[in-house]
Amino acid sequence: MTVGVALTAADADNQIDATVRLAREASAAGLRSAWFGQTFGADSPQLAAIVGREVPDLHVGTSAIPVFGRHPLLVSSQAQTAQAATHGRYHLGLALGTKLLTEAGFGIPFERPIARLREFLTALRQLTETGAADFHGELLTATTPIPARVPGAGTGVPLLVAAMGPQALRASGELADGILPYLAGPRALAEHIVPAVTAAAEAAGHPAPRIVALVHGVVTDDADAVRETVAEQLAFYEQIPSYARVIGLSGGTRAVDVSVIGDEKTVAAEVRRYRDAGATEVVFSGTEAAGEAARRRTWALLGELAG
């Protein structure tokens, strides 16, 4: 099992320079991958490509680009460029996104998300594997009157989906290479998420899917105080039905209930629980919640676990 971290430097004077510095530190700590969220700020595939060039020991990934407000042709160009820049170390994560951000930000209706995800994945797979597409769906059209291949990108980009609900898991098992569940604890993974996506992949004749568990956590000796801070930071997710559901399936009532907060022994034990629940990779986010010293302490432990 590999271990990585999600890197965040949005408050820095220069986000790109600061992210590269963090990536170098993560690599030096022994971590294997660095992942970048997609907001309305920095473009995550570009950020991944830059970091992957600057820090060649790390695999880099996007977690995750919403399919609403994007088109497979454009995302394929971004992904293939990042893949060529990193010589095969880029991993593309996609997401359904949320009704709130889709409609408020893009001004488009959040309708038929699973159908859009299926069409997006189908067209994107054609593009990233062959550099061409001739896809005509109900919601999307993707054709290539001129070539869409990026030389050096190879014959494919790993496609992962931030899927946790039954329909999204089925689509991901059939059409993607794996999933990127977030705020899904070991119980939800073992009892609901991993069996569903694995069954879908098997039925489609695909290999066992990657399960890249994104875990919010930090090593600290002041767990109670950090938990209060994290509870405020993650409260937004409790308003989103998909997250509220998976938190409940994990045995929690609030997002902080599925965060991993404690000393080295506690955090290491929780990482093992994720592994035992079916995670093939664990990626920690929110490691800066208790300050720089705690972040470095967390990365040191994760680096040891990665080794």
Automatic annotation (TrEMBL):
Transmembrane segments: none annotated. GO terms for molecular function: oxidoreductase activity, acting on paired donors, with incorporation or reduction of molecular oxygen. Residues 13-280 form the Luciferase-like domain. Gene3D superfamilies: Luciferase-like domain (3.20.20.30). Keywords: Oxidoreductase. This is Oxidoreductase.
